[in-house]
Amino acid sequence: MGCHYSRSQEIGDFVACPHFCFALAFGPCREELECLTGRSVDLINLRETNTVLQNEIITEGRLIYLSDESGKDAFEMNVMSAYQKLNEERAGILEEIESSGKVFK
Predict the structure, then answer these.
(1) Looking at the 3D structure of the chain, how many domains does it have?
(2) Domain that holds residue 25
(3) Rounded alpha-carbon distances, angstroms, from residue 28 to 49, 67, 78
(4) Is 40 part of a structural domain of the chain?
(5) What is the mean pLDDT of residues 58-75?
(6) pLDDT by residue (tens digit) across 14-45?
(7) Which residues pair with 14 in a beta bridge?
(8) What is the CB neighbour count within 10 angstroms for residue 69?
(9) Quick check: is 65 in a domain?
């Protein structure tokens, strides 16, 4: 059972297990990590969360274990591509919010 990313501070502590670490294994993995670190830990499957959180974790997180370098690289490239597309799609919305100072019309 290998866990990949850790992120603490304002968005909490995150560790993402690879795709073969199913939800049933999250409990024991979380408990073991909490015992080892002495801190509360939240586990998520990075492949099933939103693009913004994925990007935050891969850009700001700290890698604590790696078993598949090419898999990590492919995942990160997919996330960065999806995040760039998201930013392009919402650019007009963000500009409108900035110029009007309003989120809702």
Answers:
(1) 1
(2) 5-100
(3) 21, 19, 29
(4) yes
(5) 88
(6) 455 454 445 556 778 888 888 888 888 877 88
(7) 7, 42
(8) 8
(9) yes
